[in-house]
Structure formats: C-alpha cells, structure tokens
Amino acid sequence: MSNHREMEHADGFELLQIDAHGVNGEGFLIRIPASNTGKDLQQEIASQIPQKPGSHISLQHESNKLSLRKSLKEQGFHGKVALSYVYTKVDFAIRVEIPG
Questions:
Q1: What is the dihedral of CA 62, 63, 65, 69, to 10 degrees?
Q2: What backbone torsions phi and psi does residue 93 show, to the nearest 5 degrees?
Q3: Under 8 Å CB-to-CB from 61, ≥6 apart: which residues?
Q4: What stretches of 10-98 show up as alpha helix (H) in DSSP?
Q5: What are the residues whose beta carbons fall under 8 Å from the beta carbon of 3, sequence distance 6 or more?
Q6: pLDDT by residue (tens digit) across 16-53?
Q7: What are the DSSP E strand ranges found in the chain?
Q8: 16-89: which CATH topology?
Q9: Could you tell me the pTM of the whole model?
Q10: How many CB atoms lie within 10 A of CB 51?
Q11: What is the DSSP letter of 71?
Q12: CA-to-CA distance for 87 and 22, rounded, in angstroms?
C-alpha cells in the first residue's frame, strides 16, 4: 500500500496537487510534477476547461502571476497548491507608428 508521501514522490519526482479555480468558482484538481514549467501547467489547465475564441488563460498563485518559463518547484510550489485562472483576450492587432 502506498501512503501520501510515496504519492508525492512517485518515480523520484515530486507530484504537486494543484487546486485550480476559475473566477466563476468552478474548479478541479490536477497532479503534475514539480519539475514541469508554468507553461506545462497552463496547457494542462487549458485542456480541462472550455476554450474561448480570441483568448488564452492566465494563471495566478496568491497575488503573483505564474511564470511560464520557470519550473513550478523554482516558483516555490510544494505539496498542495491553490491557484486561479482567468481568460484574457489576445490582442491580434499590431500597432505601427509612422513617423512624420
């Protein structure tokens, strides 16, 4: 039988339990290795929620925006982590200023 500690360190890496919630209060749990990046987590969450055309999701832990390039461990995540996600509009317009 496995205990909680063994699940956290399965196969030699730490598994995080992420409690992800949207602004509407709906949420779900994800287990993901602490060595994964914020981008990996963003993609995992995006695969679990309805897509909205012209938008992507931003992730926030407490009052900090999640870094997409750093590993979750580098960002101080251990054990159980609660975070929120929000849809943000993607601005496809390119603004060019013409001198003159």
A1: -60
A2: -75, 135
A3: 75, 77, 81, 82, 83
A4: 38-48
A5: none
A6: 999 999 988 889 999 999 999 999 999 999 999 998 88
A7: 15-22, 27-33, 55-61, 64-65, 80-89
A8: Ubiquitin-like (UB roll) (3.10.20)
A9: 0.77
A10: 10
A11: B
A12: 9
Q: Which residues contact 69 (CB under 8 A, 6 or more apart)?
A: 37, 38, 39
* Cα–Cα distance, 92 to 76 (Å, whole number): 33
Return the domain boundaries, the chain: 16-89
Look up residue 23 and give its two tokens: 């602004």
Round to whole Å and give the CA distance between 13 and 87: 30
Q: Is the pLDDT of residue 89 over 60?
A: yes
**Residue indicated by tokens 């500690």:** 5
Q: Is 73:34 a contact under the CB 8 Å cutoff?
A: yes
Element spanning 35, H or E: none
